[in-house]
Every structure is written in structure tokens, then in C-alpha cells.
């Protein structure tokens, strides 16, 4: 529809009648033209504004002639609001209505801006500071009051369009009085809680535009807009509403934590938007170090490719703003943080040009002579990145083995000097140690075809390991290099054991040299009778004074030896071999376990290492010092994993220690115990008196840990044993179900996450496992319902309802969801146990027959229709089920309608599904079948028990009645000894006669 022609200006004012006719004719035309294209909005807004200005000039006097009436503005407002009403009833998604809404908001903004400029010009000419409302302000106030009524409409479409129009108008409202502002704010706060997500989203957009004005308000008791938006951002169930709050919430120290938490939003679009639209606009320096690391780490390990790409783009942008990779790396913690390496890899993937300006060479190796922690770290990660890409540039950039050996020796010398200085600089030591560690890690991946370089690296590593000043953090890295440059694991073990023995020899010399010096001081003393006594006294005094120092030295050396042995055992267990096997795919499994066997034999053949166990590990376990003792226990556990005789000898000791220790040490011991059971089986101690039964008891008791970390560790270990079919105990399975649904474990997310993965995998992977779950279904469900009923209101809300628990258990036992059913082959169908739910239905009806509590019976009836009854089910089983249902309905009828209807639906479903199988069953064969005998005997036994109980209750009631009469007589006799007033007796007799007459 073409827009109306512009109204020419006239020198004289329009009459009211002429104005009304013009408005009624042209305003609808303008609205109609604006719905077709946004391109014509500017022209139509100017035309409508011209009509508005003409209308504002039309005024009339009141009847008494003292008041000027704005009749023109009123006429325009009436026609304008009548036109506004039409799009308010159009549902979301209609483009014509959306264009009209934008047109209205555009006109309001244009009119308010024109009004503001005109007032400024008039104020400048008249030098008058008085602010008077212009025509546009009055129109906006009327329109806003009209739209606020739409906020309360019952129609959700009207509420949505009203809030949408206000959201577009908010920025154009200009200056409004405080009452109007509070009214608007309160109305929007109500719509933020609307039941429709579309309304809430528009309310969030409108409310966000009031943030700056709201923060300027000094009223501390008033609810802040930012607080409401933070709450919406955190708790609103609709992803689009949270997204609206995410886009419109102004970043500040107050709102930044809530914005960062959207990197963990369940909606991938919101997570991606948090990186590309929120964090992308925030300078990296505004975030704390922890916030930066957490946000980027979450994005880089996100399961959605789009989110990972957004995080990489953000990291690349921040690195450019920081002025390069090295400077950007200074914003992160290299020493304790874990995100820096992934961050650098992301930068190299998304923006490799940032590394082009970095020079790794130089004529004299200037770069390697002046390494800092950040440059060393960047170099190592960059070389690994090029190695993964098989980039040919790596050969030109990476130093050769011999050169790297000299670089390591140079930095190690600096570190030793710093560690041995009289005045130590901890910051410098930390930096030098980190640089040495990066260079050593770099050496692991080098090509050792150069024999001279290999020997140089070997000598450097051996020298560093033999030095008692070597930081503990460098021990594993040095052992990795030694493992790489030695010819075999056996040779590697021999070298490391020699290093440990040399350190222990130094420990012995350290404590004996002082005694030798003390003896030398007395060499030249006269040999008389008092010399030996004086020497003994001096030695005792000297030993007493030096004992704390000697103890500290021995402890440090023992700890160092234990750290080395621990790192050695971890590498002997085949971690590097395992990684190589993984790279080869499925065919590498045999090689991995074969490698473990070979290294176990190497351990048994290495008598030197067994000597360390006797001389170092066992004494460490017996020490009272917690640090030494914990290291000894960890080493003993690692040795047990490689040597079954040691495992048998140490299992009981480790089990006792798991009860006596606490914290991180208990977790480590429990992990070791479960690893031993997985590796050697639960019968590893059958010859020692702790066979499978004892181990199962230990597993049950281990699931009752008080510490959440220890409890989660035990659950993970038990799940491993059950998935590997080493443990099939139904009691333990029932305990796992209780832990999964109990309210006490709601905060133990590690435990819940483990079990949420375990149960589907365990049940669906094997029909035998589904059968076990079905066996624990009824007793576990009954126990969980009792627990649920005993909880308070708050705890009950935190726990899953019994009906939902039952539905989840039925889902795990559903044969249709088994992996064999998914394969749908002849062999898989033959292995499928599709009568699990049929047998479970019989057990549930039996419990229903025995149960007398209304709630328990109702729960079972609600679950029955959810069972899967196969079409090809055995006819005798189905007929037994139907016979049992009829017996229940006749002998133990249900009281409530819900239970009756549910049982009726289930019965009809069974009859409809298995009608042919039931009809094919011969009556004589059915009467002679074991299924019929089972249900018949069950019903008969329970009915007889019920009769016996009723008779016993009657006899008990009669005996109680006789006993009560005797007791009354016995009690009444002593009362007669006390003479009572005659009047009272007469009154009692009269009352008894009245009661008899009434009867």
C-alpha cells in the first residue's frame, strides 16, 4: 500500500473537525504503509510527526474561558492509540506486526527528540530555566499508561506485544518523573516473572535499559535492576531469556561473576555467546587471573565445536591486545595453573602468525642463554604443536640434543648456585627451577640418534638426580628422560636404584662423620681411666644437641628417596608403553599387558629394588612422621601392583591404614586397594584367609565413608569391579542404588556423576546385569520410600520422589534398551533376556497381594503399566500373572481409584499383548505347570497366614479383655478400704441406671 502524501503546511490553524477527519483518514494509512517495509519508516515517521505538530496547535477554551484545552493533542492521542491496538493482538513471528511495532517506537523517539531540541532552542532564546512538558512528553506518558494496562492482560499475546513495544520505547522516553519511572520499573519486574518465556525475554530487554538510571539512585533499600537481571541470568529455565539477560547486563565487578558462569550454561548457544559477545568486549586485564584461566579452560574443553572455536577466537584477540604470546602468557600462572598450555595451543591453532616474530636462533644462541619461564614454556609448547602437525619447520627451530644438553647444564648450574647460596632468593629459585623443568621436558621428545648428545643428556640427568638439592618437581621429568635414553626398563631400574642407594649412603655418612670428628678430637688425650668416661659424656651431649638437625636431614633424604622410588614405579608400570599402545588402536592391548608382565618379571629379578623395599619403604611405613609414612604407603601400593606376592602381603596392612588415615592419603590408599582388586582379582588372598567373602565385606564397609572424596573413590572402585564382572553381589548393587538416590549424597557430585554413567552402562551391556538390577528393585525401592517418608520437607524436596526412582529402575531393566536389542541380529536376539519385566511383574503383584499400606500399593500399581511384556512371552508365565492379578482383585482388593485403574490398565495390556500365547496353553498342562503351583501356593499360604493372624488377634483381644476385667477388680478392691461418701455412691448408681435406660 503506498504511503499517503505529505500534508502541506498551512498558515492558519485547522479546526477541530477538520483535524479529526484528517487524522482518522491518514493515521491508519501511515500505519498500513509501515507494515510492508522498514525502508519507508523514516518518511512515514516525518509525515506522522507533521500531523502530530498540527494537532498540537489546535486548542479550545473551557466553558468558563479560563482554561486552555489541548483538544488537538487529545484527538491525535485517541486515533494514535486506536492504531496501536491492532498489532498488540498479533502473535509472535508475524513480520507485519513487528514492523508496525518498530514504526511506533521510531515515531516516539523522533517526537521526543524533536521536543527536546525545541525546548533547548526556546530556553536559549528566553533564558528561562523552567522545564515544561512538551506535546511529545504528554503523548508518551499517555501511551505508556495505556501499554502498562496491557502488561496485566490475560492474553499472553497482548502481554508480549505490550512489553515488546515498551522495550523498544524505553531508550526514547526522555526525562520522565519519578512516579512514572517507579511504575514502569515495578511493572517490568512483575513481567520478568511471567509464565511465558517470550514475555520474560522482552521484560528483561526493557529492564536492562533502566540499569544506569537505577544504579544512580541512592536508595539502598530498593531492589536493584542489576540484582534482578543476575537472578534471571542464573535461574531462569528458558535459554532465550538467559540469553537476553546475558546480552544486556552491563559488565561490572558485581555482575562479572554471573556473566562468567554462563560459560557453563546448559545451552551451547549461550555458552558460545558468552565468549563471542560478552567476554570478547571485555579487556583481559579486567578479569582476575583465576577468572581468566577458568573461563578459557572451560571453553577450550567444551564438547561443542562452536564453543571451542569461540574460546580460541577470544584467546587470539586477547593475545593480540596484550602485544604478543609471551606478554599474554604473563597474565596466567605458569607454576600452579593448568590452563596455560591449552591456551597457547589454542593461539597457535587460531592465529599462528603471532609466533612469526619470535626468534629461537641467533649466532651464539642468545635466545637460549637468556631464557625466562615464559619464553621457555612458550618454546616447549610451540615445538610440541609443530611436532603434532608434523611441520618441517621444527627441524630448523628445535635445538639439537648436544646443544640442549649444554643449555640444561647451564640453567642447572645457575639453580644449584641459587639453592646453595647463603641468602636464598625464592622467586629466582622458582623461576630457574621452572626453566630447567621446561628444558628437561623438551629433551623427552628429541631424536637420540646422536650418540654423543645421548651420553651428554644421560650424564646430566644422572648428575641432577644424584644431587640432594634437586627440587622434587623435577624428579619425574628427569626420570622420563632417563627412561628415554636407557636401553631397557631393567637397565633404567638399575640406574635409578643405584642413585637411591648413593643418596642413602650420603645420609649414613652425614650422620657418622660428626661422630668421627668427635672421636678425632680425643685422639691425643692422655689414656687414663677418666678419658673414656669424658668421651662418652661429650658424645652424649653432642648427640643430644645435634639430634633435631640429624633427624631433619634424614627425613629430607628419606623423602627424596621415596619420591624417586615412587616416580620410578609409576614409570615401570608402563605409562609410556600404554600411550604408545593407544596410538596403535585396538591391536595394542595385548602388547600393553604383555609389557606389564615383562616389567613385573624385571621387578622380581631386580634384587636391588627388593632391597629398597625392605630398607626404605617398610621402615617409612612404620614412622610416625605423616609425610614420610604417606610416601611409604604410596610406594608400597605401587610395588603391590607389579608384584602379586607383595600385594598379598600388604593388602591387609593397606586396608587397616585406609581406616586409620584421613584426607588425601586415605583416598590414595583406597585407590591402590581397588587397583589391586581389579588387577589381581578378589580372591588374591584366598590362601591367607581373606578370600572373596572377606573382600566383599570390605567393599560393603568401604561404601560407608564419611568423607565425600573417600566415598566417591570407593564408589568408583566398586563400579570398576562390577563392570569387569569381578563382583556380582546383589547387596553391593543395592547399596550403590541407595547411594545414587539418597539425599545425603546430593552434594557429592563426583559420586553422582560416576553412578549416573555406571548404571546405564552396567544394565544395558549385559542381560545378566539387568536381571540383577531387577532382583534388587523391590527391596531397594521399599527402603528408599521409607527413607523418603521419614525426611523433613526440605530434605524430601532434595530427594527424588519414589515414583521417579521406580521409573528409573524400570528403565534400567528394560530389555528393549539392552545393547543386544540394538544390534538386532539373530545371535543377539538369542542372548536377549526379554522376560525380565514379566518376572518382575509377578514379584510386584505378590508384594501388592501381601502389602496393606495404601501408599505402597499405589506406588506399585502406578509402576505396573510401565513394564514391558513381550509378545512372544511364555504362555504359562503370562497366565500365572493374570491369575495372580485376579486373586489380588478378589481377595485383597484395592481401596483407591488410582490404583484400581492402573492395575486394570496393566491387566488389559497384558491380555491384549499375549492373547494368543494364553489361548494356546492347555488347561491340564497349566494346572500341572510349576508357574501355577507357585502362584497358587503363594496365595494359599498368605490367606492362611492372614486367617491365623486374625484369629490370634481375636484371641489376644479376648485375653486382653479378661485381663482388664481382673485388673479392674484388683484395682477396685483397695479402693473400698477407704470409705467414700454415700451420696457419691448413689449418684454413680443413678448415672449407671440412666446409661442402661439410654441403651
Helix and strand layout, with pairings?
Layout: H1 16-34, H2 41-57, E1 60-61, E2 68-69, H3 71-85, H4 95-126, H5 135-150, H6 156-169, H7 178-191, H8 197-208, H9 211-215, H10 225-235, H11 239-248, H12 256-261, H13 268-278, H14 289-300, H15 305-322, H16 325-329, H17 340-350, H18 366-369, H19 373-389, H20 394-397, H21 401-419, H22 426-444, H23 451-466, H24 475-485, H25 489-521, H26 529-572, H27 575-584, H28 589-605, H29 607-622, H30 626-642, H31 644-660, H32 663-680, H33 692-702, H34 708-723, H35 730-741, H36 749-765, H37 767-790, H38 793-798, H39 802-812, H40 819-823, H41 826-831, H42 836-850, H43 854-863, H44 875-891, H45 897-913, H46 915-920, H47 923-928, H48 930-976, H49 982-998
Helix pairs in contact: 1-2, 1-3, 2-3, 2-4, 4-5, 4-6, 5-6, 6-8, 7-8, 8-11, 10-11, 11-13, 13-15, 14-17, 15-17, 17-19, 19-22, 21-22, 21-23, 22-24, 23-24, 24-26, 25-26, 26-30, 27-28, 29-30, 30-31, 30-32, 31-32, 32-34, 34-36, 35-36, 35-37, 36-37, 37-39, 37-42, 42-43, 42-44, 43-45, 44-48
Amino acid at each position: 500500500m503506498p504511503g499517503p502524501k505529505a500534508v502541506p503546511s498551512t498558515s492558519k490553524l485547522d479546526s477541530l473537525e477538520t483535524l479529526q477527519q484528517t487524522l482518522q483518514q491518514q493515521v491508519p494509512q501511515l500505519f498500513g504503509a509501515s507494515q510492508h517495509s522498514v525502508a519507508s519508516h523514516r518518511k512515514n515517521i516525518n509525515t506522522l510527526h507533521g500531523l502530530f505538530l498540527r494537532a498540537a496547535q489546535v486548542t479550545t477554551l473551557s466553558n468558563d474561558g479560563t482554561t486552555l484545552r489541548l483538544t488537538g493533542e487529545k484527538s491525535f492521542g485517541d486515533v494514535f492509540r486506536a492504531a496501536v491496538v491492532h498489532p498488540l493482538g498479533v502473535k509472535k513471528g508475524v513480520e507485519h506486526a513487528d514492523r508496525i511495532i518498530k514504526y511506533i517506537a521510531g515515531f516516539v523517539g523522533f517526537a521526543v527528540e524533536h521536543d527536546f531540541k525545541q525546548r533547548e532552542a526556546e530556553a536559549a532564546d528566553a533564558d528561562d530555566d523552567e522545564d515544561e512538558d512538551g506535546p511529545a512528553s504528554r503523548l508518551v506518558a499517555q501511551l505508556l499508561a495505556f501499554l502498562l494496562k496491557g502488561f496485566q492482560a490475560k492474553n499472553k499475546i497482548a502481554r508480549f506485544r505490550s512489553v515488546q513495544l515498551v522495550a523498544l520505547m524505553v531508550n526514547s522516553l526522555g526525562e520522565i518523573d519519578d512516579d512514572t519511572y517507579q511504575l514502569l520499573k515495578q511493572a517490568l519486574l512483575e513481567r520478568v516473572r511471567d509464565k511465558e518465556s517470550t514475555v520474560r525475554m522482552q521484560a528483561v530487554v526493557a529492564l536492562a535499559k533502566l540499569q544506569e538510571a537505577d544504579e544512580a539512585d541512592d536508595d539502598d533499600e530498593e531492589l536493584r535492576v542489576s540484582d534482578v537481571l543476575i537472578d534471571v541470568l542464573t535461574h531462569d529455565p528458558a535459554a532465550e531469556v538467559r540469553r537476553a539477560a546475558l546480552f544486556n547486563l552491563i559488565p561490572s565487578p558485581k555482575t562479572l561473576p554471573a556473566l562468567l558462569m554462563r560459560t557453563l550454561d546448559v545451552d551451547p548457544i549461550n555458552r558460545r555467546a558468552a565468549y563471542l559477545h560478552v567476554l570478547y568486549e571485555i579487556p583481559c586485564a579486567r578479569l582476575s587471573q583465576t577468572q581468566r584461566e577458568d573461563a578459557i579452560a572451560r571453553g577450550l574443553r567444551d564438547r561443542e565445536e562452536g564453543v571451542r572455536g569461540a574460546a580460541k577466537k577470544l584467546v587470539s584477540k586477547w593475545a593480540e591486545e596484550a602485544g604478543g604470546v609471551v606478554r599474554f602468557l604473563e597474565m596466567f600462572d605458569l607454576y600452579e595453573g593448568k590452563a596455560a598450555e591449552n591456551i597457547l595451543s589454542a593461539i597457535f591453532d587460531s592465529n599462528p602468525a603471532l609466533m612469526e616474530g619470535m626468534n629461537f636462533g641467533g649466532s651464539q644462541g642468545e635466545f637460549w642463554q637468556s631464557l625466562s619461564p615464559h619464553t621457555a614454556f612458550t618454546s616447549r609448547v610451540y615445538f610440541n604443536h609443530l611436532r603434532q602437525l608434523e611441520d618441517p619447520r621444527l627441524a630448523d627451530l628445535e635445538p639439537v640434543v648436544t646443544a640442549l644438553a649444554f643449555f640444561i647444564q647451564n640453567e642447572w648450574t645457575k639453580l644449584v648456585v641459587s639453592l646453595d647460596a647463603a641468602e636464598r632468593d625464592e622467586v629466582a629459585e622458582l623461576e630457574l627451577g621452572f626453566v630447567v623443568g621446561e628444558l628437561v621436558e623438551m629433551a623427552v621428545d628429541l631424536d637420540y640418534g646422536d650418540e654423543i648428545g645421548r651420553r651428554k643428556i644421560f650424564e646430566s640427568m644422572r648428575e641432577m638426580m644424584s644431587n640432594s638439592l634437586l627440587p622434587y618437581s623435577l624428579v619425574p621429568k628427569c626420570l622420563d628422560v632417563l627412561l628415554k635414553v636407557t636401553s631397557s626398563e631393567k637397565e633404567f631400574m638399575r640406574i635409578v636404584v643405584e642413585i637411591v642407594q648413593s643418596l642413602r649412603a650420603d645420609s649414613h655418612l652425614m650422620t657418622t662423620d660428626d661422630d668421627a670428628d668427635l672421636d678425632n678430637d680425643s685422639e691425643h688425650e692422655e689414656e687414663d681411666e677418666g678419658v673414656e668416661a669424658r668421651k662418652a659424656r661429650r658424645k652424649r651431649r653432642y648427640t643430644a644437641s645435634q639430634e633435631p638437625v640429624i633427624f631433619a636431614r634424614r627425613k629430607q633424604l628419606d623423602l627424596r628417596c621415596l619420591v624417586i622410588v615412587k616416580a620410578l614405579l609409576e614409570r615401570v608400570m608402563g605409562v609410556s608403553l600404554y600411550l604408545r599402545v593407544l596410538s596403535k588402536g585396538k591391536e595394542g592391548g595385548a602388547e600393553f599387558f604383555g609389557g606389564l608382565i615383562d616389567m613385573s618379571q624385571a621387578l622380581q629379578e631386580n634384587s636391588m629394588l627388593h632391597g629398597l623395599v625392605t630398607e626404605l619403604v617398610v621402615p617409612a611405613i612404620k614412622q610416625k612422621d605423616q609425610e614420610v609414612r604417606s610416601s611409604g604407603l604410596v610406594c608400597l601400593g605401587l610395588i603391590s601392583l607389579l608384584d602379586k606376592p607383595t600385594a598379598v602381603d600388604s593388602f591387609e596392612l593397606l586396608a587397616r591404614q585406609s581406616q586409620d588415615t584421613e584426607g588425601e592419603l586415605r583416598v590414595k590408599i583406597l585407590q591402590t586397594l581397588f587397583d589391586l582388586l581389579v588387577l589381581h582379582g578378589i580372591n588374591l588372598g584366598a590362601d591367607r584367609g581373606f578370600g572373596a567373602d572377606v573382600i566383599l565385606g570390605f567393599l560393603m564397609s568401604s561404601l560407608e565413608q564419611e568423607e565425600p572424596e573417600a566415598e566417591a573413590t570407593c564408589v568408583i572402585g566398586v563400579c570398576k569391579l562390577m563392570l569387569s564382572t569381578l563382583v556380582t553381589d546383589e547387596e553391593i548393587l543395592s547399596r550403590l542404588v541407595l547411594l545414587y538416590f539418597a539425599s545425603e549424597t546430593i552434594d557429592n557430585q563426583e559420586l553422582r556423576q560416576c553412578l549416573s554413567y555406571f548404571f546405564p552402562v552396567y544394565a544395558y551391556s549385559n542381560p545378566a546385569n539387568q536381571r540383577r538390577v531387577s532382583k534388587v528393585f523391590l527391596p531397594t525401592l521399599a527402603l528408599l520410600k521409607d527413607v523418603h517418608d521419614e525426611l523433613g520437607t526440605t530434605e524430601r524436596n532434595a530427594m527424588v520422589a519414589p515414583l521417579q526412582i521406580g521409573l528409573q529402575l524400570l528403565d534400567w531393566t528394560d530389555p528393549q534398551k539392552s545393547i543386544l536389542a540394538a544390534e538386532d541380529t539373530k545371535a543377539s536376539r538369542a542372548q536377549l533376556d526379554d522376560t525380565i519385566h514379566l518376572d518382575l511383574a509377578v514379584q510386584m503383584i505378590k508384594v501388592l497381594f501381601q502389602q496393606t499400606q495404601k501408599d505402597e500399593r499405589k506406588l506399585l500399581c502406578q509402576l505396573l503399566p510401565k513394564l514391558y511384556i513381550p509378545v512372544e512371552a511364555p504362555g504359562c508365565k503370562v497366565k500365572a500373572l493374570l491369575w495372580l492379578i485376579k486373586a489380588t482383585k478378589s481377595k485383597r482388593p484395592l481401596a483407591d481409584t488410582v490404583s484400581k485403574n492402573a492395575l486394570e490398565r496393566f491387566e488389559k495390556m497384558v491380555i491384549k499383548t499375549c492373547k494368543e500365547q494364553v489361548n494356546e496353553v492347555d488347561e491340564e498342562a497349566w494346572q500341572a505347570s510349576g508357574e501355577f503351583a507357585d502362584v497358587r501356593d503363594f496365595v494359599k499360604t498368605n490367606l492362611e497366614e492372614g486367617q491365623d493372624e486374625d484369629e490370634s488377634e481375636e484371641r489376644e483381644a479376648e485375653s486382653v479383655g479378661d485381663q482388664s476385667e481382673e485388673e479392674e477388680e484388683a484395682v477396685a478392691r483397695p479402693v473400698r478400704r477407704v470409705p467414700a461418701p454415700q451420696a457419691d455412691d448413689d449418684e454413680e448408681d443413678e448415672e449407671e441406671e440412666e446409661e442402661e435406660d439410654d441403651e
